[in-house]
Amino acid sequence: MSELPIIDLKNTNYNKVISTSGTNYEKNHPVNKCVTELDLLDSVIGISFKYLGDYKKIHKSLVKIQSRLIYLRCELLTHPRDWDEFCKKSKCINQKDIDYIDKCCNSISKSIKDIEDLGGNYGSSGESSAFFDYIECVCKKFEIALHDLDDNIHSTKISHYISEFINKLGQYLYLIARYLRD
């Protein structure tokens, strides 16, 4: 296990990431991989808006979720040694965020035809549905990178709220893809 670097965004070059302590970290360090996957997720959610058309409620929910991804990125880059203390001072991912996505999942589930058949309902129907299936895969890649990061740091553990938030986000993206398919 390695020490997680505190990233100094002002002094980052293309080959190495320099921490505030002056230590060089390779680009393939778990925190860099994790943040890169998060940036990709944030980007594809932004692109998804062109596929939503008149689905204003889904668009609004994704904008709110996307705004939380900005704070999540800050959490990962600062990786506090004491999450409880950090969360008192920052807008960290918390139970309210998880509850919000849960509410979004419940709302969209009510609108999906044949919700009982979702277990075997794979495949996409149309470009919009396929794109949200793609976003769900990107979300899963970020979730895997997050677990890899958690396995590689010994000074602290990633907040369980972050893992739950990303897991719920993946569920929501899956449901959106099914909804757009109907």
Sum up the structure in keywords.
single chain, two-stranded antiparallel sheet, 62% helix, 182 residues, mainly alpha
Question: Summarize this, please?
Answer:
With 182 residues, the protein is mainly α.
How would you sum up this structure, described in words?
With 182 residues, this protein is mainly α. The chain has helices at residues 30-48, 56-78, 83-89, 95-109, 127-152, 160-181, and strands spanning 16-18, 24-26. A two-stranded antiparallel ribbon has the order 1-2. The radius of gyration is 18 Å and the shape is globular. It starts with 15 loop residues before the first strand and ends with a helix. Mean pLDDT is 79; it is low at 1-5 and 7-12.
β-strand number: 2
Mean pLDDT: 79
Biggest sheet, in brief? 2 strands, antiparallel
Reading side by side through the largest sheet, how are the strands ordered? 1-2
DSSP strand content: under 5%
Terminal Cα span:
46 Å
Based on Cα principal axes, name the global outline: globular
Radius of gyration: 18 Å
Number of discrete helical segments:
6
* Helix and strand element order: EEHHHHHH
Structural class: mainly alpha
Helical residue percent? 55-70%
Low-confidence stretches: 1-5, 7-12
Task: Describe the protein's topology.
Layout: E1 16-18, E2 24-26, H1 30-48, H2 56-78, H3 83-89, H4 95-109, H5 127-152, H6 160-181
Antiparallel strand pairs: 1-2
Helix pairs in contact: 1-2, 1-5, 4-6, 5-6
